[in-house]
Amino acid sequence: MRQPLVVANWKMNMTSPEASVYCQRLRTLMQETTTPAEVVVCPPYTAIEVVRAAFVGSDLAVGAQNFYPAPKGAYTGEVSISMLKALDCRYVIVGHSERRLRFGETAETIGEKVKVAVEHGITPILCVGETMSERSLGMTEKVIGQQLLTCLKHLQSDQLAQVVVAYEPLWAIGTGRSATAKDAAQLATYARQRLQRLMNGDTDAMRILYGGSVAPDNIAEFAAADGVDGVLVGGASLDPDKFQAIARAYEVK
Ligand code: PEP
């Protein structure tokens, strides 16, 4: 049985004082829920320590949005995986489409990041997704399959279950237009099939999330979608009340 996972991607939002106010509110709100979901907040680097400290003694976890895959050295402006580990980051988002598109991140670099994160015991949340034109051409599965194989190629089969895959169609990110739960479920099935051989037939442990315009008013369908183990939430995660409402959708009714 895979534990549901609900992840906030704050992107470049929230100063550390704002993060502190948010976390106090989220902690209070989370006391009202019996959600079985693991709830994770990925703030900008500058607020990781504030979020970490605010979550001590709770079930909430902190993660990061990126890192650079070298151990240390002359990489001005970058942050290593050990630095994230020292801040108790349990997860790190890798290969988000905004990083691929705005910062030129390649599948090769993303694959390296996935490997380094796994080797350091931080769970990578690997984002994959197709553009609208790829979708219109009926290429969704082909594109996702290629992204998965390239980004996971450095891992041994027993390491693959330590990766979380987030299916995030690019046309659904920040647009208010989500995919359907059926799309997400189909893609999750396809991704597991695609990874079957690499994982020696056992893809049961791998968690697959959906991301793209998830909000309190559409979370129920994603929470009920077969084979979809949680969500990666951008815009709606900036409001603690909305984010808690999303986590609550996983409560056992
Ligand atoms: C994201 O950027 O990972 C994301 C899912 O954003 P949004 O929820 O705003 O679409």
Summarize the SSE layout with pairings:
Layout: E1 5-9, H1 16-30, E2 38-42, H2 45-55, E3 61-64, H3 81-86, E4 91-94, H4 97-102, H5 107-119, E5 123-128, H6 132-136, H7 140-152, H8 157-160, E6 164-167, H9 181-195, E7 207-211, H10 219-223, E8 230-233, H11 240-248
Parallel strand pairs: 1-2, 1-8, 2-3, 3-4, 4-5, 5-6, 6-7, 7-8
Phosphoenolpyruvate is lined by residues 9, 168, 173-174, 211-214, 232-236.
* Biggest beta sheet summary: 8 strands, parallel, barrel
Bound molecules: phosphoenolpyruvate
Order of helices and strands: EHEHEHEHHEHHHEHEHEH
Query: What is the assigned CATH homologous superfamily?
Result: Aldolase class I
Helicity, as a percent range:
40-55%
How many H/I helical runs? 11
Oligomer: single chain
Kindly report the spatial arrangement of strands forming the biggest sheet: 1-2-3-4-5-6-7-8
Low-confidence stretches: none
Under CATH at level 1, the class stands as Alpha Beta
- Given the C-alpha coordinates, what overall shape results? globular
User: From the 3D coordinates, which CATH architecture would you assign?
Assistant: Alpha-Beta Barrel
Strand content: 5-15%
Supply Rg.
17 Å
Which structural class should the secondary elements be placed in? alpha/beta
* Cα separation of the termini: 17 Å
Let me know the average pLDDT.
Answer: 97
CATH fold title: TIM Barrel
Give the domain tally: 1
Number of strands: 8
